[in-house]
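Course assignment 3, question 2. Fill in each field.
Student: A.L.
Task: Predict the tertiary structure for the chain below.
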Amino acid sequence: MGYCTKCGEENSDESKFCDNCGAPLKKSYTDQTKVEVVKTSRTIEMVLGILGGVFGLIGAIVAFFIGSLGTAFGATGASDVTGLGASAFLASIVGIVGAVYVTKNPKIGGIILIISAIWLLISISLFGLLGAALLGIAGVIALIRN
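Answer field:
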């Protein structure tokens, strides 16, 4: 039995790939000592993602308020603004979920963050700009950082 040099998982001597992470196993992995794996902290991505989600939620509330105000005064297109506020609300929630998930799987979490940033920006444009920027930055950091 030996250990993977990438994730530290114990594998059988016959394995060519790690059972946990799928990394190719080198012949040197068969040392009977466990490899210490240093995991990268994902605090920056998580904090930026959560902040982006919170600012997105604030933008969604503003869109809800404007849509409701427009409906009260009989403005045309008020229901569209309310619908976009709902879309921004969902995008923000997805962004917060991605920010938390980035600690488990940085690549998928980063993709979720970038998708929610684009979704938020499309939904409420200027009101979601800060939230979208923070979500996007967190997503890019998660994807490029080791």
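Instructor remarks: Helices lie at 43-72, 78-101, 106-124, 129-144. The longest strand covers residues 2-3.
Grade: pending
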